[in-house]
Write a structure and sequence with these properties.
2 domains; mainly alpha
């Protein structure tokens, strides 16, 4: 897993797709050995795997390289130079959404192989893939570029200035502080814009009401530690027909 995690761009997108997926194992991982007081299980308990066991990094890198129209060696060279995946895609004139699609397919193939290898059961794989599909759908509705645009606008700078600051090693929290902007305002702006995007997707019948609520709850949970967001807009959104 080290080779993948060193690539910030690759890791970020892969995490967006698989983040939370392995949580489906938690409820089945309290003990690897059933006691005599427990009801007999229809299938042997499978130990909760490390996320690295579910991801074939070579397969994912190959998928990314093919989506970008370059070799794996060229992809690795760009990574070693510190080029982030979105930046590389932009340089090559490739839509990041197409790269994400390729990653999603590779991740799904990795999950299928994990079933074959006995790392997880088919039922667990189905639950993981459902979560991945939801995050993939969420990305197509409101992606990293959209979030960057809202963030830059809230900070009162351009996307290019935001990217340059982050590339120099300045954290978003530090940048907001330098510009006199509260981080909660940035987080709230991003969240509210995501809500609007999901509402539009629902109106366009691109998602079901259930999918819309799931996407927004995932987003709210991920931002909750950093802001004063409240689930009020989620409740208001859920009440819509």
């Amino acid at each position: 897993m080290n080779k993948v995690t060193k690539s910030v761009g690759i890791a970020l997108v892969a995490i967006l797709l698989i983040a939370g997926a392995t949580a489906v194992f938690a409820q089945n991982n309290e003990s690897d050995t059933p006691t005599t007081n427990q009801p007999q299980e229809s299938a042997p308990r499978i130990q909760r795997p490390n996320p690295g066991q579910l991801l074939d990094r070579e397969l994912i890198e190959q998928a990314i390289a093919e989506a970008l129209g370059i070799s794996v060696e060229e992809l690795q060279a760009a990574r070693d130079e510190g080029t982030r995946l979105p930046e590389l895609a932009d340089e090559l004139g490739v839509e990041m959404a197409d790269v994400v699609d390729a990653i999603a397919e590779a991740v799904e193939e990795s999950i299928a192989q994990a079933v074959v290898d006995g790392v997880i059961t088919q039922e667990q794989a189905d639950r993981i893939l459902a979560r991945i599909d939801l995050r993939h759908l969420s990305y197509n509705i409101f992606n990293l570029e959209d979030a960057a645009a809202v963030t830059a606008d809230t900070l009162g700078i351009s996307v290019e200035e935001l990217q340059a600051a982050l590339a120099d090693g300045t954290t978003l929290l530090e940048l907001a502080d330098e510009l006199g902007v509260e981080m909660v305002d940035v987080q709230t702006a991003v969240f509210n814009t995501r809500v609007d995007a999901v509402q539009q997707a629902l109106a366009d019948e691109l998602v079901t009401p259930q999918q819309a609520n799931q996407i927004l709850r995932l987003s709210w949970r991920s931002q909750r530690p950093f802001s004063n967001l409240r689930p009020g807009r989620l409740q208001q959104f859920a009440s819509q027909p």
